[in-house]
TrEMBL record, chain B:
This is Sarcosine oxidase subunit delta, SoxD. It is an enzyme of class 1 (oxidoreductase). It comes from Desulfotignum phosphitoxidans DSM 13687. Keywords: Oxidoreductase. Coiled coil: none annotated.
Length: 973, 86
């Protein structure tokens, strides 16, 4: 393992802390602060992966994850960008897309087969004969894969999400981003600053060169970072990549958690008033033969390997660069002990004089107007040929590292995904945003500034513009900031595209998809002459790096190859996610949320088996006998108790309360008497029945009503929607969670209730369909209704949720001698089915109207003037005999009940079973079904087709309803 | 969801909090002389404007009120005032 520096101020590693990890089955040691890729590099690994198509060896290139070169399988997760993923103890790292190893890949020979695979090779060759497709596809998939995920892979870690808001969101924590954040924060605004790397500082952070007055760039970065960190109204998110930007300034990203964080990754969605984009630049790759050979790397990568991770990239480095950061890197690496035989600078002039002097002081040869044309060496760089740009003179140098970087590429992603347009700028050679989105501002290096002061000043100005966007900055302040900019150097001149004068067979414009210059030429020659088409035909930019490598070069090269006088060609469209994001991060935490009724705990103690029903969890059974025989028989013979707290419960009062009810309920509610319960239903505008429940008149203009469990959430919205033009005066309160409901049912129900209450509960004192209010023990206020959903003598007791437990215990105690038992939702379902009482959603579906389920009697045809929702459609549907009808059914020859949802068929589908059960009360199988009108006559034979019945139908007959106690004596007794 | 909606009571909020209630079509028609066709038109026919339209929203996760806004359906941005169709 190589010796690591430990004296540099810029280091982010702790050399005293060794971290073990496994690579190819062997244990290696990295250093605290290493990424996986730098730890491997320190252990001598140079070939990280093989390329997608040609299986070419690939190495560390950019350090910011713009290409798939260093993607590996880590802890079973494929395609991990090891250059940006930090090393953790015990990580298991494997190569991917290799046969053998990355070092010796048996498929490496494919590299020599490139002549057989020109651009568009799949489209051209793979259509005939069609028969070979399945075979060919399998083989191609095997050879060209990037990582495999095991089908039973379980994603480890905790994933979270937050949705913060702020006045100003700054994307990018470099010098421009930090000054922008500080400028906005000083105006008193709430600022969010997000930075993709784990620390602030951007390209200042890792540079030891002079910023101003002997202060280094690194020291300046630290100074700014400290200021940011101590500013209370800046909320800082480091290690947070920006993923998307949308209109109304919605900014999305994800944060990678530190060891101390409770999350592995978390999704962040920021709603900002103004946004500053200060994402800076990445480097534009230099195009030459074998430009992705391991050993070739960008300047920033080489410099950060040394300054951030404390190791030299190699022994001898040749430079072929086009910007001052390249010169600075050469000087820095030389001073750290690397041999730098030559710098080929694409630029004829324009270098920073101080840097030039530093280079010459160190006796490094600098060739201005020269460029690398070919890297030599089988698996790693051993030699490099450099030529003058006009290709007249050529030299060859031995080296083990080739630092190659053509220029800079602005990271305009957040602007572009938010609909900014890009235009080519001749001075910077950048595609720069024009027509910035509303309240979105750009700053810093991405605008072409290279001077440190200018970068900061542009950040300051953008911060003030953002504050101005929040109406928090004066025009005078803005003017001052603009003036300050004028006295500083403007955007720097960028390097034009220079390509080595070679055929470009192995000059790769896109590493991920192995797209060479030759492939681009082939595409253009075939007529695919704009980047968007070339991209799709040749694959350039379609890989995991999403255009990070070819994004800038492709339009430049396209324009150059076609000799366009003016670059009007636009780069390919950038789309979110700007950075690959784990599905687990989007999924976030477990979203299984449900409500518990006040009786939840007690019912669980009693052995309740719970199921999710709508937003609630309810006790469905109280034994493992899912037919619920005991529960059902106890209700029929003794008395049972059901937790009905999930019922929707509402109070409506005010001068127009009745009007509002008349609008949504099909019955005429003006006739309800106080003390009586009215059962009624709501329809939608198509007459389809959506809800049923009871309405009670509490007093003048004061009503209490219940809805079904599923509709409770929408009822207020529904009533207000349908009365939104009327300006009616009523107040509507949702009491669903405030009130609990106990349903006491069975022939002994009265005897139980009698023992608990003071009022007269005899059939004369409290008759069927009556409503009473009373208190129990002078304390518990009860709204009681006599209903008969399950077909027995039954009381529905509505009490405040906080008293539910008490009342439950009281009834249990009082009911002991009458054999009181819990019953669950399934028992209730069978009990009411025997009575043919419908449950909406079970006996109805979306298209079922009130008449179809035989509840037309609820509709008051005389009620006019209320514009009741649904009645116009009902009036029309009344004469329609093609609709499905709800019927009762009985199985033939004492057969078993069909499954719920079974189809009713003859030569086609004629209906379906809603609910059917083997009834213990009746000793036969009965149920309800929706069938076509002509099959609804009593005595019609029905054939049932069930899932997986293999053509074996079962049969039943349409019968009279209800099945149980047809006269309804039991519920009225 | 990038959409924001300005509730008359709660102010500008994330679109997540609201439920869409359809285009503004005016009050429910009178029951008198109502034909099935005109009723069906009122309930189901929409203009589907590519441009600014007035539409209903319900502040479901907020104050629970129904109100209308003007929204440009091509940009998904709210407009403060209705604009003439281009």
């Amino acid at each position: 393992m190589m010796n690591r520096f430990n004296h540099l101020p810029t280091l982010k590693i702790d050399t005293s802390d060794k971290i073990p990890f496994t690579y190819k089955g062997k244990t290696y040691y990295g250093t605290k602060g290493d990424t996986i890729a730098t730890a491997l590099y320190a252990n001598g690994v140079r070939i990280y992966a093989r390329s997608l198509k040609y299986h070419r060896p690939r190495g560390l290139y950019s350090m910011d994850g713009e290409c798939s070169n260093t993607m590996m399988e880590v802890n079973g997760i494929p395609n991990v960008r090891t250059e940006t993923t930090f090393l953790k103890p015990g990580m298991v790292v494997k190569e991917q897309n290799v046969k053998g190893s990355a070092e010796n890949d048996f498929l490496g020979f494919i590299d020599k087969m490139d002549w057989a695979m020109p651009a568009g090779f799949y489209y051209d060759t793979m259509h005939k004969p069609a028969k070979i497709w399945p075979v060919a596809m399998k083989q191609i998939r095997k050879a060209a894969g990037i990582g495999k995920l095991s089908p039973d892979h379980h994603m480890p870690g905790k994933y979270d999400e937050i949705f913060p808001t702020c006045d100003v969101c700054v994307i990018g924590g470099g010098p421009a981003g930090m000054t922008a954040a500080l400028a906005a924060a000083q105006k008193g605004l709430r600022v969010i600053l997000m930075e993709a790397r784990p620390w602030l500082g951007g390209h200042f952070e890792y540079r030891t060169s002079e910023y101003i007055d002997r202060q280094t760039h690194h020291e300046r970065a630290v100074q700014l970072a400290k200021e940011v960190e101590k500013t209370e109204n800046i909320r800082l998110f480091t290690h947070t990549a920006n993923v998307g930007a949308y209109n109304n300034n919605l900014i999305t990203g994800f944060q990678i958690g530190k060891e101390s964080d409770v999350f592995t990754e978390r999704y962040i969605e920021i709603r900002a008033n103004s946004v500053v984009v200060a994402t800076g630049c990445i480097e534009r790759p230099l195009l030459f033969e074998n430009n992705e050979r391991p050993g070739v790397m960008q300047a920033g990568c080489a410099l950060r390997l040394a300054n951030t991770y404390g190791m030299l990239p190699g022994k001898t480095a040749v430079f072929s660069i086009g910007h001052d950061l390249g010169l600075e890197t050469a000087v820095s690496l030389h001073d750290l002990g690397m041999s730098v035989p030559v710098i080929a600078d694409i630029r004829e002039d324009g270098q920073d004089p101080a840097l030039l002097k530093a280079v010459l002081d160190r006796k490094i040869t600098i060739l201005k107007g020269w460029v690398a044309t070919e890297a030599h060496g089988g698996k790693q760089v051993k030699k490099v040929t450099v030529k003058s740009v006009d290709a007249t003179v050529s030299k060859t140098y031995d080296c083990d590292v080739l630092v190659a970087s053509a220029g800079f590429t602005p990271l305009t992603g957040p602007l572009v995904v938010n609909q900014a347009k890009l235009t080519y700028d001749n001075h910077t050679n950048f595609f720069l945003p024009t027509d910035l989105p509303k309240k979105m501002y750009a700053a810093g290096r991405l605008l072409g500034f290279e001077n440190a002061k200018s970068i900061e000043a542009s950040g300051h100005l953008a911060g003030l513009k953002a504050a101005y966007g929040c109406e928090n900055c004066s025009i005078a302040d803005l003017g001052e900031a603009k003036k300050a900019m004028e006295n500083l150097p403007g955007p720097a001149r960028g390097t034009k595209l220079v390509t080595a004068p070679v055929k470009g067979r192995k000059t790769f414009i896109c590493f991920d998809e192995d797209t060479s210059i030759k492939n681009i030429k082939q595409s253009i020659d075939k007529g695919f002459d704009v980047p968007e088409l070339i991209k799709r035909f040749s694959g350039a930019g379609l890989g995991p790096g999403q255009g990070g490598i070819p994004g800038h070069n492709l339009p430049l090269f396209t324009a150059k190859y076609q000799a366009l006088p003016d670059i009007k060609i636009r780069p390919t469209t950038v789309r979110p996610p700007l950075v690959p994001t784990l599905i687990a991060t989007y999924a976030g935490t477990n979203h299984t949320m449900f409500k518990r009724t006040p009786m939840d705990e007690m019912q669980r103690k009693d052995g309740g088996i719970f199921r999710n029903i709508g937003v609630w969890q309810r006790a469905r059974y109280f034994s493992k006998d899912f037919t619920c025989k005991a529960e059902i028989e106890n209700v029929r013979n003794n008395v049972g108790m059901l937790d009905g707290s999930t019922l929707g419960k509402f109070r409506i009062h005010g001068p127009d309360a009745l009007n509002a009810l008349q609008r949504v309920y099909v019955s005429d509610l003006s006739k309800i008497k106080e003390g009586r319960v009215k059962y009624t239903a709501m329809c939608n505008d198509d007459g389809c029945v959506i809800d049923d429940g009871v309405v009670v008149k509490l007093g003048e203009n004061d009503y209490y009503f219940s809805t079904s469990t599923g509709r409770a959430g929408q009822t207020i919205e529904w009533i207000r929607y349908h009365t939104r033009y009327d300006n009616w005066n009523f107040a509507l309160v949702n009491l669903t969670d405030a009130m609990g409901v106990i349903n006491l049912s069975g022939p002994n129900a009265r005897k139980v209730l009698e023992k608990v209450v003071d009022i007269d509960v005899s059939n004369e004192g409290f008759g069927f369909s009556e409503y009473k209010e009373f208190t129990i023990a002078d304390t518990i206020p009860v709204k009681a209704m006599r209903l008969g959903f399950v077909g027995e003598l039954s009381y529905e007791l509505h009490v405040p949720a906080s008293y539910m437990k008490t009342l439950w215990l009281m009834l249990n105690e009082a009911g002991k001698e009458f054999k009181i038992q819990n019953f669950g939702v399934e028992a209730q379902n069978v009990l009411r089915m025997e009575k043919c009482h419908v449950i909406l959603g079970q006996e109805s579906e979306q298209r079922t109207n009130l008449l179809d389920i035989g509840m037309g009697f609820l509709w008051s045809r005389k009620k006019t003037g209320y514009k009741t929702v649904g009645v116009a459609a009902l009036a029309q549907a009344e004469n329609d005999n093609t609709r499905l009808k709800l019927v009762g059914l009985k199985m033939e020859n004492n057969g078993r009940a069909p499954k719920d949802g079974a189809l009713i068929v003859d030569d086609r589908v004629r209906g379906h079973v809603c609910t059917a059960r083997n009834s213990f009360s009746l000793n036969e199988a009965v149920g309800m079904a929706l069938v076509e009108g002509d099959m609804s006559k009593i005595g019609t034979r029905l054939a049932f087709y069930e899932d997986e019945c293999k053509g074996e139908l079962i049969y039943g007959t349409v019968v009279e309803t209800p099945f149980y106690d047809p006269e309804g004596k039991r519920m009225k007794m | 969801m990038a959409l924001t909606i300005t509730c008359p009571i709660c102010g500008k909020r994330n679109g997540y909090e609201f439920r869409y209630g359809g285009e503004e079509k005016g009050p429910r028609p009178d029951e008198k002389d109502l034909t099935p066709e005109s009723w069906c038109d009122y309930v189901h026919m929409n203009k589907c404007v590519a441009g600014v339209q007035q539409e209903w929203w319900f502040h479901r996760d907020g104050c629970g009120s129904w109100f209308t806004i003007f929204r440009d359906t091509t940009t998904n941005l709210e407009k403060e005032t209705p604009e003439a169709k281009e």
